[in-house]
From TrEMBL:
Keywords: ATP-binding, Cobalamin biosynthesis, GTP-binding, Kinase, Nucleotide-binding, Transferase. InterPro entries: CobU/CobP, P-loop_NTPase. It comes from Methylobacterium frigidaeris. This is Bifunctional adenosylcobalamin biosynthesis protein. NCBIfam families: PRK05800.1. The keyword Transferase applies. It catalyses: adenosylcob(III)inamide phosphate + GTP + H(+) = adenosylcob(III)inamide-GDP + diphosphate; adenosylcob(III)inamide + ATP = adenosylcob(III)inamide phosphate + ADP + H(+); adenosylcob(III)inamide + GTP = adenosylcob(III)inamide phosphate + GDP + H(+).
């Protein structure tokens, strides 16, 4: 249970694999703070399965959660968040996928803008992302590039984060900062 007398970290990065419990853990971090809470969703519903996943996530977040969609312009959305309002971004790897699939995107500039907006955020800000670097080397060039870009993004954000947590099998392991 979080200590109510201790200030929440300004920036927390929560990493984990698919179905690791990272989103639920991140939601719990935000819900331990006074609401209302802002959920910044990066997913796009390209098919029925993804629509069902999005619906299930939304059903878990009744008021005082407010959900806004930012599949591409995540840095601006973070910058527009009201000062002091707890913000959860879920998830960075979906945002990265959206950016990589945009032929007009300057990925390095977009990552730099994201890191800058996170650095400037009034906080508390909790970022959720998939750790994809534990598996085998992907077979195709796009998948290898995605794995590498995600790893670089995570390193940049971990460097500026006050707390970094890895969630495995529903168990959070603090890698940096306080629990």
């Amino acid at each position: 249970m979080p200590d109510p007398d201790r200030a929440a970290p300004r920036l927390t990065l929560v990493l984990g694999g698919a179905r690791s419990g990272k989103s639920r853990y991140a939601e719990g971090l935000i819900e331990a703070l006074p609401g209302p809470w802002l959920y910044v969703a990066t997913a796009q519903a390209w098919d029925d399965e993804m629509r069902a996943r999005i619906d299930a996530h939304r059903a878990r977040r009744p008021p005082p959660w407010e959900t806004v969609d930012a599949p591409r312009d995540l840095p601006a959305m973070i910058g527009r968040a009201p000062a002091g309002r707890p913000v959860l971004v879920d998830c960075l790897t979906l945002w990265l996928t959206n950016a990589m699939l945009d032929d007009d995107a300057d990925l390095a500039a977009e990552v730099e803008a994201l890191v800058g907006s996170c650095r400037a955020a009034a906080g508390p800000l909790v970022l959720v992302s998939n750790e994809v670097g534990f598996g085998i080397v992907p077979e195709n060039a796009l998948a290898r590039r995605f794995r590498d870009e995600a790893g670089r993004l995570h390193q940049c954000l971990a460097a500026i984060a006050d707390r970094v947590v890895l969630v495995v099998a529903g168990l959070p392991m603090t890698l940096k900062g306080d629990t």
